[in-house]
Design goal:
The protein is mainly α. The chain contains 10 helices and no strands. The chain folds into 3 domains: 46 residues, no CATH class; 57 residues, no CATH class; 51 residues. The chain starts with a helix and ends in a 10-residue tail after the last helix.
Length: 172
């Protein structure tokens, strides 16, 4: 930390740090107790590939893809570069080959979602999973969720919506 602070103006290097766990990256650069607090000069928040980009990728690797192939490619990857790369590496471009890759033995996809969410949610992951499970089962009002969980969930729901973008509040 001291070496970087005292030499960064004279050095001819760029230090690039990247990570896929949003909460961890936020903590590292925005928590005053962390060594990298206030030291980021630029930030890039990479988004997933859009459908047009996925079409181009499929066209490059599998020019005769069908609409179903594109839909499967998008549904499974969500445009996330890591997942796109995995399917491209495995040459899974058709609906059938994509599904086979996803459910195949030792597939990264089988546990990936749960593992990413556990990492992201931290020690409170059980509460987040319970809330998401209740929402998936049709309990969508805060009152109903709090009644079943017997605890205040406003902070959890707020983070699920505003930090993680997993849920969205919809009012009639």
């Amino acid at each position: 930390q001291h070496l970087w602070d005292s030499n960064k103006k004279d050095s001819k290097i760029n230090l690039l740090l990247c990570g896929s766990v949003y909460s961890m990256m936020t903590r590292i650069f925005e928590n005053a107790k962390e060594p990298l607090f206030g030291r980021a000069s630029q930030r890039i928040h990479l988004k997933a590939f859009d459908v047009a980009t996925l079409k181009e990728i499929l066209k490059d690797y599998h020019p005769h893809y069908s609409g179903e192939d594109l839909l499967a490619f998008y549904l499974i990857t969500g445009g996330v570069a890591k997942y796109v790369e995995l399917l491209v590496t495995k040459q899974a471009f058709t609906k059938q080959s994509i599904i086979a890759e996803v459910i195949g033995e030792n597939s990264l996809f089988l546990e990936e979602g749960k593992n990413v969410l556990i990492e992201e949610f931290g020690k409170d992951y059980g509460n987040y999973f319970s809330i998401l499970s209740l929402i998936a089962s049709g309990k969508t009002s805060r009152v109903a969720i709090e009644s079943i969980m017997e605890m205040q969930t406003g902070g959890f729901l707020d983070r699920l919506e505003n930090e993680y973008g997993v849920v969205q509040k919809v009012r009639p």
